[in-house]
Amino acid sequence: MKVIKINAMWCPGCLISKSTWKEIENSYPNNEYIDYDYDLDEDKIEPYNIGEILPVVIIFDKDKEVKRIIGEKSKKELLKEIGDIL
């Protein structure tokens, strides 16, 4: 699986979720994790049609989007949404 995380330096929810995602990455190390900045990586995130609510996490299986998570979530909420996917 490929997990693309889109954050911004000015986004409080993004800053809070960084440590949560580090824990999840350590629990699921066989996946590819890519971080993009909403402002600095505009050309890279453009194809994903990101709205204005951050953070955004998109999970791909063989280049097909299988899950999109929008907004700040607790670790428990994230694991409930992605646990069986990853």
Provide structural commentary.
It is a single chain. By secondary structure, this protein is an alpha+beta fold. The protein has one domain (2-82): Glutaredoxin (3-Layer(aba) Sandwich). It has 3 helices and 4 strands; from the N terminus they run βαβαββα. It has helices at residues 12-27, 42-45, 75-82; strands at residues 2-7, 32-37, 56-61, 64-70. Strands 2-1-3-4 form a 4-stranded mixed β-sheet. A hairpin with a 2-residue loop joins β3 and β4 (64-70). The longest helix has 16 residues, at 12-27. The chain is globular and about 30 Å long. It starts with a strand and ends with a helix. The mean pLDDT is 94.
Question: Any key phrases for this structure?
Answer:
86 residues; Glutaredoxin; four-stranded mixed sheet; globular
CATH class categorisation? Alpha Beta
Number of domains as seen in the coordinates: 1
What is the structural class?
Answer: alpha+beta
Query: How many helices in DSSP terms?
Result: 3
Q: CATH architecture, please?
A: 3-Layer(aba) Sandwich
Order of helices and strands: EHEHEEH
Strand percentage lies at 25-35%
Kindly report how far apart the N and C termini lie.
7 Å
What profile does the largest beta sheet have? 4 strands, mixed
CATH topology category name: Glutaredoxin
Q: Strands of the largest sheet, in order across it? A: 2-1-3-4
Number of DSSP-assigned strands: 4
Overall, the morphology is globular
**Cα gyration radius (Å):** 12 Å
Helical amount among residues, as a percent range? Answer: 25-40%
On the 0 to 100 scale, the average pLDDT is 94
